[in-house]
Q: What sequence folds into this?
């Protein structure tokens, strides 16, 4: 593989030419407008490209990604992206999307030590302990991991809905719903985790219901 990444630059030129062949106005529209209705908070995993999964074109979804799709009130990167999406782009839907097979979630569940990322995923380890998903039984590990991937998304939706950015948007009367989804690497299908919140009064009830439904599925 070339050290100067010329193969990627060539691939870019091929892709750009193909876009123009299919739609001569593609880049002109893209250059003059960004008005997505969707803000995607997903995992940095290279196997989980937001636009591709939901078959949306460039310009149709605003994206923020980090290890294990976390939402922290003190994360200036994530909060800045959220503020831009909500207050400037006026998105109508925020999708927190995790995925089965998430390495960050597995690392947190096992309590592995890898360095700086330990602190980032520590809340997931605490979530696992709270729900009894820290296990050394190899036969149960995959089931626990799948459950924790879902719980993590549900938890991050709740965190986001409790942020001042989202609270302020709702107080302004902005049309905004936060959703929780999970993507499967096995078949490419997205699972709706039945947590969609459109206002502050819905947070606790919908969160509790979503967690209870998850527990029932895995019982």
A:
């Amino acid at each position: 593989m070339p050290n100067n990444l010329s193969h990627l630059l060539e691939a870019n030129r091929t892709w750009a030419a193909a876009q123009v062949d299919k739609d001569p106005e593609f880049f002109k529209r893209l250059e003059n407008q960004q008005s997505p209705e969707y803000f995607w908070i997903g995992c940095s995993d290279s196997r989980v490209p937001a636009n591709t999964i939901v078959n949306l074109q460039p310009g149709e979804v605003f994206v923020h990604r980090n290890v294990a799709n976390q939402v922290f009130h003190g994360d200036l990167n994530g909060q800045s992206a959220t503020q831009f999406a909500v207050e400037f782009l006026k998105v109508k839907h925020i999708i927190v999307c995790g995925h089965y097979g998430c390495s960050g979630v597995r690392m947190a569940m096992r309590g592995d030590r890898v360095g700086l990322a330990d602190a980032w995923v520590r809340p997931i380890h605490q979530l696992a302990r709270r729900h009894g998903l820290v296990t050394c039984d190899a036969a149960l590990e995959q089931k626990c991991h799948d459950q924790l991937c879902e719980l993590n998304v549900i938890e991050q939706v709740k965190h986001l809905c409790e942020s001042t950015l989202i609270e302020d948007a709702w107080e302004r009367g902005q049309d905004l719903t936060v959703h929780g989804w999970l993507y499967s690497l096995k078949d490419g299908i997205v699972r709706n985790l039945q947590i969609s919140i459109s206002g502050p009064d819905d947070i606790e009830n919908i969160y509790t219901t979503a967690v209870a439904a998850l527990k029932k599925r895995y019982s």
